[in-house]
Amino acid sequence: MNQGLITTQINNGCATVRFSHPKSNSFPTQQLIQLKNTFDKLAVDNTVRVIVLASEGDRTFSAGASFDELLNINNLSDGTRFFKGFAQVILAMRDCPKLIIGRAQGKAVGGGIGLLAACDYVFATEQASIKLSEISIGIGPFVIEPAVTRKIGVAAFSELSINAGNWFTAYWAKDKGLFARVYDAIRDLDLDLEVFTTKLSSYNPDALIALKKTLWHGTDSWDELIAERAKISGRLVLSDFTKKALAQFKK
Questions:
Q1: Is the pLDDT of residue 1 over 80?
Q2: Average per-residue pLDDT in the chain?
Q3: Which of the residues 88, 130, 201, 234 has the least number of beta carbons within 10 Å of its own beta carbon?
Q4: What one-character DSSP code corresponds to residue 185?
């Protein structure tokens, strides 16, 4: 199985973490572990003041967790471990003292939305529509919910998750608070992103660290909460309803 690729480039205090996978930038478990470890490493790198999270390509930011792995889950232990993948990355992003800026150049689904919600500020293009389809296959976006609700609120999360399979525009996401800026073209996004991160990297690093801590105030309980959510999803993926839905999807 292709485990995807993650690269890190550091320039003038800004680290760009870029991930890729041939299946719409989806994440196998091993790649999620690698991404978590990357954030942990950058957290203690004194040469880095700001982090940009980006993906390859121009159409899809991330399709979420690997569907190939989801189809192969057949016990609660594996199911829980699978859904903990994005949980561990989100917690690593919370714990990283550096501000993390998201670059959403294309569509985001499921766990991909969770990653963007865990960013502290997000640049997006008009092509960055979002969708939560989990409930339609018998599971739910339970693990990423705390991060998403923190950004867009309960009402918007409800609208997004209940309307499973429906695409919501980048402008809807901006209006709800998931995205900070939306651009017509990737080139315009990248030009402004470079200016933005260069300026941000020039600020007092101690002040940036204090700001990051302030932005995530009140999330200390997430470790236990998200672990419990992973168990819920791990159990649901074994249900007859979900097995039938996944089998139909595979056909």
A1: no
A2: 95
A3: 201
A4: S
Give CA separation, 93 vs 38, 119, 184, in Å: 10, 7, 28
Kindly report whether the global pTM for this prediction surpasses the value 0.90. Answer: yes
Residue 143 CA to residue 27 CA, distance in Å, equals 15
**Strand ranges of the sheet holding 60-62, from the earlier edge strand across to the other edge:** 60-62, 107-109, 130-131
* Domain 5-201: assigned CATH number: 3.90.226.10
- Write out the DSSP string of 12-56: TTEEEEEEE-TTTT-B-HHHHHHHHHHHHHHHT-TT-SEEEEEES
Decide the pairing of beta strands 14-20 and 5-11.
antiparallel
Under a CB-based contact definition with an 8 Å cutoff, are residues 64 and 26 in contact? yes
- Which pLDDT belongs to residue 165? 82
pLDDT, residue 68, reads 85
Inter-residue contact 61 to 107 (CB < 8 Å): yes
Strand pairing class (181-183; 5-11): unpaired
The structural domains of the chain, with segments of one domain joined by +, span 5-201
The closest alpha carbon to 245, from 140, 131, 129, 112, belongs to 140
Q: How would residue 39 be classed by pLDDT, with cut points 50, 70 and 90?
A: very high
